[in-house]
Each structure stands twice: as C-alpha cells, then as structure tokens.
Design goal:
The complex is a heterodimer of chains A (about 140) and B (about 140). With about 140 residues, chain A is an all-alpha fold. Chain A contains 6 helices and no strands. In chain A, helix 2 crosses helix 4. Chain A is globular, with a radius of gyration of 18 Å. Chain B has one domain. Chain B has 6 helices and no strands. The chains are: A mainly alpha (about 140), B mainly alpha (about 140). Chains A and B meet through helix 1, helix 2, helix 3, helix 4 and helix 5 of A and helix 1, helix 2, helix 3, helix 4 and helix 5 of B. Chain A: Keywords: Membrane, Transmembrane, Transmembrane helix. Chain A: Pfam families: DUF6691 (PF20398).
C-alpha cells in the first residue's frame, strides 16, 4: 500500500512537472534570467505547489500518525550551517547551467533525448561523490 | 504562450498534491534529490521499494501524457561539457545541502522552514548569477 501511494505521489509530481513546462530548460533558465527575457512561469508553479502542501502540513499537525502508519517527519531544525549554504550554491550553479533539477531530470528522461540521460548520469555521479566528499570536509572539523 | 502561467499554476497544484499525498499517507517529505540520492548511496536501503515506486511515477506519468502533446522540445543544451558539469553540481550540491527545489523549496517553504527558505534563497541567487555570467557575459549557454 505504501508503494502504491508512493507511485501515486510520484505520478502527481511527474504529471505536474510535465504540464507546468518545468522540464523545458528554457523556461527554468528564463525564470532565472532576470536581465534577459524573463519568464514568470516558475513562480506560478512554485506558488501553486506550496498551496496544497501548506494545507497538508496543517492536516498533518492534527493527526498523530500518517494514514498508512509510521511517523511524520520531525519539525524542521532551525539551525543554518555552512553545509546548507555551500550545497545550495553548488546546486543553484548546476540548475542555472542546464535548467534542470532532480525532479524534472527524472520526469524528462523518456522524451528529452540523450542530453537528458547525460545530465542524469552526471547527477548520479555527483550523488555518489557526496558521501566521500562530506567525510573529507568534516574530518578536520571533528579533529579540531 | 500567454497561457503558460495557467498551466504552470495547474502543474504546480499537481506537484503540491503529490507532496501532500506523500506526507499524509506515507509520512514522508517529497524531495526528489533525497529519494533518488538515498537509492544511489545506499542510505535509503530500508525503504528502497517505496523510493523506486515514487520515481517510477515521476518517470511514467509524462510518458502517459506525451501523446496529448506530441513532441516536446526541452531546449536542453547540446554541449556535453555543460551537461556533465551541471549534473555533477546538482547531484553533489543537493546531497550536501540535503535537498533541492522540491524538498527545500516546495516542502520546506510551505511549512515556513528556515532552512528551506535559506536554501531556496541560495540556489535561486546562484542560479541567477550563473545564467547572468554564462549567458550574458560569456555567451556559453
């Protein structure tokens, strides 16, 4: 049952990305391009997505457990750290370069052509590299 | 073209509904980089079927919708150097920051998470600066 609902959630996510045009790299780069031909679409997508999600967080507060059991995620930590900043800046650079982020990358694999698979493969490579990179970065801090 | 924002809004509502289902039914935050990254580095081994099921939905629904649209041009660059550099940065960056546009953006902002808001500020600023430099200054993308 959990897997069925995960598939349903992923399907809504994938359909939304497709319909909204967020797998079109020109629309994403167009939104980031405030000094060029600015495309406002992404703001509507983000705004539209936040509405049902904000309602869902409110509903979650009234329940003790999720419908299919288990536990809700813990409250978001209030702590900002270098890791969050550095990682987000790296992600933003890649996002701007290609106009793709992880969700749309998966959603566009079936029709985007070989370039989308190249990006996807490189993204997997980056994800594989993350644990050793993080281990190296945090080791001196722990020793100090 | 002038209807793009309407489709953006409808698509956004679907994206948020997906996140709502994943939270209320499965008790999980819908973050694409976390769901995929947990499979890639093995940290999500305990619920790997749920992750694969989610990603299968993301992959397959556009396949089902594609016939309604005919061909879709994603306007992606054909420069493989840019694609590889961008992919590496997105993969590494989202794992270091523990989230991307869906996890930090959609799911974080909607619960007024300070980390989600900060991460979104950082990646939008970095993305904007990157497009400015690589498009208008250096003319690469």
């Amino acid at each position: 049952m959990r897997n069925l609902f995960a598939f349903l959630a992923g399907g809504l996510f994938g359909a939304g990305l497709f319909i909204s045009g967020m797998t079109d790299t020109a629309k994403v780069q167009g939104w980031l391009d405030i000094f060029g031909a600015w495309d406002p679409t992404l703001a509507f997508v983000m705004g539209g997505a936040i509405i049902p999600m904000a309602i869902a967080w409110q509903l979650a507060r009234r329940r003790s457990t999720p419908v299919l059991g288990g536990t809700f995620p813990p409250p978001a930590p209030m702590r900002l750290d270098t890791r969050l900043a550095v990682g987000s800046v790296m992600f933003g650079m890649g996002w701007g370069l290609a106009g793709l982020c992880p969700g749309p990358s998966v959603a566009s694999l079936s029709y985007g052509g070989v370039e989308h698979w190249v990006f996807f493969a490189a993204m997997i490579g980056g994800m594989l590299a993350a644990p050793p990179v993080l281990a190296r970065l945090t080791r001196p801090a722990q020793a100090a | 073209m002038e209807q793009d924002w309407i489709w953006g809004l409808i698509g956004g509502l679907l994206i948020g509904s997906g996140g709502a289902v994943y939270l209320l039914a499965n008790g999980r935050i819908m973050g694409a980089s976390g769901i995929l990254g947990g499979l890639v580095d093995g940290s999500g081994k305990s619920n790997w079927v749920e992750r694969v099921a989610f990603l299968a939905g993301v992959f397959l629904l556009p396949v089902a919708l594609l016939p309604l649209y005919g061909a879709v041009d994603t306007h992606i660059t054909s420069n493989w150097w840019v694609l590889v550099a961008a992919g590496l940065l997105v993969g590494l960056g989202t794992r270091i920051a523990n989230g991307c546009t869906s996890g930090h953006g959609v799911c974080g902002i909607s619960r007024l998470s300070l980390r989600g808001l900060a991460a979104t500020g950082f990646y939008i600023f970095a993305g904007g600066a990157t497009v400015l430099l690589f498009r208008h200054v250096w003319g690469i993308i």
